[in-house]
Amino acid sequence: MRVIGMDLRSADICADLSTTAGRARAVEAARALCDNKLDVLVCCAGLGPQAEPVSAIASVNYFGVTALLDGLFDALKAGGRASAVVVSSSSATLQSWTDNPLRQAYLEGSEQAVLAMLEALPPEQAGYAPYASSKNAVACAVRQRAAAWGAAGVRLNAVAPGAVQTPLLEAGLADPRYGAAIRNSTAPIGARAQAADIAALIGFVAGDSAPFIHGSVLFADGGIDATMRPYDF
Ligand SMILES: NC(=O)c1ccc[n+]([C@@H]2O[C@H](COP(=O)([O-])OP(=O)(O)OC[C@H]3O[C@@H](n4cnc5c(N)ncnc54)[C@H](O)[C@@H]3O)[C@@H](O)[C@H]2O)c1
Question: What's CA 120's distance to the chain center, in Å?
Answer without folding.
Answer: 23
